[in-house]
User: Which sequence fits this backbone?
């Protein structure tokens, strides 16, 4: 069974760094794009970016380019979303999702709640 | 404001057919396929329709998708109470990033 298991909720202060994870099970991690989607409180879905773990290719939304980094470790079938300096406006649920094509998210993780507050 | 435009809300009574629209441009819907996601309250989104009109296994045939030019539609027939959810359209943009619509809250009256 294809499954994505995300790391737990985080509470951080502005300016701190954070890396959240998404571990993949049941498929060839290196062979499929994997992406991240943001959902701010009470709001809709926003496409953050995608990674192809096999060659580390990435694509970012212009809104998130330079704000976050998407990476992966094929030895442990895990994708990451990294912030170097969090802002209060980063408070949201972040979902990882496996893509059957670069745009089709057919399996989703359970979401990671990131709360940033002073 | 999302590049893909959806109505914020839609409603229908049990058994009815409801249609949700998604409007884009030549750089996204006009030149790429459209996908639809369903998000039930408090849960992760789920892929409902991909490549304009394809259903993943397990999705009932009450759900159907179509695309014409720079617009797409999701139709739900035989509306049921557990169809109450937020529905999002999505597409790739030729500027090399993905897009979601703003979402449509479906209420079953």
Assistant:
């Amino acid at each position: 069974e294809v499954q994505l298991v995300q790391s737990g909720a985080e509470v951080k202060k502005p300016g701190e760094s954070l890396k959240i994870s998404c571990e993949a099970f049941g498929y060839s991690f290196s062979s499929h794009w994997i992406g991240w989607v943001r959902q701010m409180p009470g709001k809709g879905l926003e496409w953050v970016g995608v990674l192809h773990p096999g060659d580390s290719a990435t694509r970012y939304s212009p809104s998130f380019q330079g704000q976050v980094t998407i990476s992966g470790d094929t030895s442990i079938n895990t994708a990451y979303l990294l912030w170097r300096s969090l802002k209060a406006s980063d408070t949201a649920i972040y979902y990882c999702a496996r893509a059957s094509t670069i745009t089709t998210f057919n399996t989703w993780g359970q979401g990671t709640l990131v709360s940033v507050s002073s | 404001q999302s590049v893909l435009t959806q109505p914020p809300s839609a409603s229908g009574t049990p058994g009815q057919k409801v249609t949700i629209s998604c409007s884009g441009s030549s750089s996204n819907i006009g030149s790429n396929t459209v996908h639809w996601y369903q998000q039930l309250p408090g849960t992760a989104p789920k892929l409902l329709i991909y490549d304009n009109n394809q259903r993943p296994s397990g999705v009932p045939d009450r759900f159907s998708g179509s695309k014409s030019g720079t617009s797409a539609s999701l139709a739900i027939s035989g509306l049921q109470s557990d169809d109450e959810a937020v529905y999002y359209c999505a597409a790739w943009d030729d500027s090399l990033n993905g897009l979601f619509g703003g979402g449509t809250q479906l209420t079953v009256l």
About this structure: The first strand of chain A starts at residue 3 and ends at 6. Chain A has a mean pLDDT of 96.
